[in-house]
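seq as requested:
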Amino acid sequence: MILSDVAIKSLINEGQIKIYPLTEEIGCASIDLHLGKEIFIYSTEVDYIDITKKPKGETVSIEPFNDSFLIPPYKFVLAHTEEIVSLGPRVAAMVTGVSSVGRLGLFVENAGFIDPGFSGQITLELYNAQDKPIRVKKGMRICQLVFFKLTGTPSKVYAGKYVGQIGVTPSRMHEEFKDKN
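struct tokens:
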């Protein structure tokens, strides 16, 4: 069941949902989040991406005096939210792009489930589906969180490789292969 603004506010007051800073008004069934200051671009100097190895790429930091970034046509990049999100053991969330961004041809998120117990900035997968560059701006509304309440307390909460992430965080899938190579 998707939570309403009333239920979201109640869970924020109880400390089950924490968003810092919380600068947007809560929508009827979601909270908008904003684009952070880093973009990660996968390296073009590799012939293929090997999921068993740490990804190669560069992190572009968006500075206050240079606060926008052009995503080239048909390019995939990683970004992150400004906000740090923490969920209690009985709350999960989904990340979805805001409609106004999607209507420009910028796809946001393809791995958008946030487990109970997660805490950190959310890494966003961005894809420019246009044949022209799209300029994104630090601090712009980029995505929204839709919340769900679990039917009970899970036997364990998220304690995986992305807990506590701050800034843009490339895939850590290679860590699953450490002892298998």
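The chain is about 10% helix and 40% strand.
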